[in-house]
Design brief:
Strand order of the largest sheet: 3-2-1-6-5-4
Strand content: 25-35%
Radius of gyration: 15 Å
């Protein structure tokens, strides 16, 4: 067992039963890994994920990581460092191709913190219009 795997086990042991249930539910949808792979392949993105976002947590539920970002299912990002924190409130997708040249995201803390140059994040809304809080996230390039 490597350090990252040990760290993920520790993090997952600190998650609420609701978040663990969400991770488990996503893991049982057989097509999710294929969808994430297709999204990476067809867009040139290096990272895609389905995550669960609450007011105080960003938890990866499923991940396709081709850029060694280092997250696995159950991994957590500090919610304040994410764009998802804002998307949760707005319920609107966020898409940008070049953060370094984008009028809003060139100065945003998230691309700077994670070295993200391009990004797509789409909130998942239930048929009834309720916000279900997981996202599909794509990160094609990191700034070097």
């Amino acid at each position: 067992m490597n350090f990252l795997h040990s760290l993920i086990i520790i993090i997952m042991s600190n998650l609420s039963s609701d978040l663990l249930h969400d991770i488990d539910t996503i893991s049982k949808i057989d097509v999710i890994p294929s969808i994430l792979k297709v999204l990476c392949h067809s867009t040139g993105m290096g990272f895609s994920a389905v995550s669960r976002v609450t007011e105080d947590k960003w938890i990866a539920c499923a991940v396709e990581d081709r850029i060694n970002f280092g997250l696995e299912a159950g991994g957590e990002l500090v919610i304040a460092t994410t764009i998802c924190n804002e998307i949760r409130d707005s319920r609107q997708p966020v898409v940008f191709n070049q953060a370094s040249k984008h009028s809003i995201y060139q100065h945003h803390h998230t691309p700077k913190h994670y070295g993200i140059e391009s990004y797509v994040s789409v909130p998942i809304i239930t048929r009834a219009g309720a916000f279900s809080e997981p996202y599909v996230r794509l990160i094609p390039t990191l700034r070097l």
